[in-house]
Amino acid sequence: MPIYEYECCDCCEKFETLVFRSDEAVRCPKCNSDKAQRVMSVCGFKSGGDKGAASSRMGSGGASCAGCTSGSCASCH
User: Fold this and answer.
1) What 3 state SS string does the chain have?
2) Which pLDDT tens digits describe the chain residue by residue (77 residues)?
3) Rounded to whole angstroms, what are the CA distances from 69 to 30, 49, 56, 58, 72?
4) Are strands 3-8 and 14-18 parallel, antiparallel or unpaired?
5) At residue 67, what are phi and psi to the nearest 5 degrees?
6) What strands lie across the sheet with 36-38, from one edge to the other?
7) Could you give the CA distance from residue 41 to residue 16 in angstroms, rounded to a whole number?
8) Total-model pTM
9) Under 8 Å between Cβ of 48 and 41
């Protein structure tokens, strides 16, 4: 039973709702309109490894950026 994100075509309200069946009618909680369109959801994830998302954001742990004087970006970020 996934939770989907919708936007109402009448009042532009963005909302999430639990959908049990794909043919289920979705109503806007603000104006009660049945003219809602499903929107693309933004999802978050954590990459694998010891450092997770931090390692992919900083590159390979030993490489430093132009502003760093050491092997760690902790001094400038």
Assistant:
1) CCEEEEEECCCCCEEEEECCCCCCCCCCCCCCCCCEEECCCCCCCCCCCCCCHHHHHHCCCCCCCCCCCCCCHHHCC
2) 688 999 999 999 999 999 888 888 899 999 999 999 999 877 766 677 665 545 444 444 444 455 555 555 555 54
3) 54, 26, 20, 15, 8
4) antiparallel
5) -90, -10
6) 14-18, 3-8, 36-38
7) 10
8) 0.52
9) no
Structure token digits, residue 55: 């390692």
Polymer length in residues for the chain: 77
Q: Side chain identity at 13, as an amino acid letter?
A: E
